[in-house]
Amino acid sequence: MSDTIVSSPPDAPRRAGAKAGLGLAALTAIVVGSMIGSGIFALPSQMAGSAAPGPLLIGWAITGVGMLTLAFVFQTLASRKPDVDGGVYGYACAGFGNYVGFTSAFGYWVSAWVGNVAYLVLLFSTLGYFFPGFEGGTTVPAIIGASVVLWAVHAMALRGVQTAAAVNVVVTVAKVVPILVFIAIAAVGFKAGLFSADFWGKAVQIDGAPLGDTMTQIKSMMLVTVWVFIGIEGASVYSQRAATRRDVGRATVLGFAAVLALLLMVNLLSYGLMTQAKLAGVPDPSMAGVLENEVGTWGAAFISIGLVVSLLGALIAWVMLCVEILRLPALEHVLPTALARENAHGAPANALWLTNLCVQALLLWTLANSSTYTNLVYLATSLILLPYLWSAAYQLLLAVRGDTYQAGGARARDIVIGVVALCYAVWLVYAGGWQYLLIAAMFYLAGTGLYVWARKESHLPVFTRNELAVFAVVVLTSVVAVVLIATGELSVL
User: Fold this and answer.
1) Which segments cross the bilayer (predicted)?
2) pTM of the predicted model as reported, rounded to 2 decimal places
3) What CATH class does 24-433 carry?
4) Which of 43, 249, 329, 455 is the most buried (most CB within 10 A)?
5) Tens of pLDDT along 303-332?
6) On the CB side of 330, how many CA atoms lie within 13 Å of its CA?
7) In the chain, what is the straight-line distance between the N-terminal and C-terminal CA atoms, in Å?
């Protein structure tokens, strides 16, 4: 007998009190919109500086399989646990307890709004192509402009999730158009001889240094891919607002497949337009420089406009994800209930204000400290990796225990998918670097006050014995981080 799901069905109605449901198109747009931000526009030079075409293809194959298994994890969990809301938060909470769920939600939230700061910095750095006063993204005019954009998006989000989601669908379509134009022009101008000239990277040198052996190149390029795939979980975070739960899984896989296809075509075709050494030296957004090399200055302007639209779309998508990842834990007494309070339009207004005030504060901090876009990206990426790991671990835990399974082959399949996804998530955490785990612990510790507040206001126990052990690890790790910061061996940005 084949496996059947013995929990509630995937088309189960939304929880009482949920707002009008988001359909498949809106959910897919959230996935695509949150994944396509800035990374794809910088991909040609970043990858050329890391790997030759041969190692690149191997690395993309590994990355594609790893991220596909994570997409299947979110699809499977959406079907087998339709009663669990909030994606990375809900799965961590259901599998490993309230405090681990809190760390997943809080880390994801911090990652999201720090990522929004990175988007705003790059947005105005890109506008510097047209208006020199914005050049670099951290000048006084740039920060003022970024603040205006931030609060305009804030005002739109206060009109409700449905309004923001509808705008996100339109912007997502608009920002894919310049990417498709680039792909079409690159396909016409592609030179097979350039692509295969040094297929394994044995001769090419970047800034006077060799690329290294094949494994070194594969590892280097895979580190770049982490940022471009963040957002794959977007539909699962919005599971409570979905019209049907089956659409959550479908949107995740459809969005991933669409973005992977675009990434591969942009990346591989670029190697056939310029020598690898020259490609690696193209300044960001390198897609603009590559197109300018093919068609002239209008190409750079066209891609820069596309990047501006893309960043605005990503900002809208991630503001939505920020507030949703605070609202759901607040409903379940993991964060203060005030963060779940909605206005007349169904928008979690308090969560939105808290999020964007944090973005504004960090924007001002970048003005004083000139933090680069890359530093912000690394911090945002590191904080989102552990939530991925908890989701993969929960899916594997369900399959091993047989929870929601009967006898049959699907359980064995899901165990394999869970093992691969968990191994990939562990590798991502390892590749991200130990220093970011230390920084993540500091954020968790700083936010634990909100968790304690939430538990006490609801008259619930703060920690179980196991959760107390997790909290002790967070405290000890944070102490190590503070010591290293004090000695100058670790910096937050």
Assistant:
1) 20-43, 55-77, 89-110, 140-158, 165-190, 220-239, 251-275, 295-326, 347-365, 377-400, 412-430, 436-454, 466-487
2) 0.83
3) mainly alpha
4) 329
5) 988 888 888 888 888 888 888 889 989 999
6) 19
7) 54
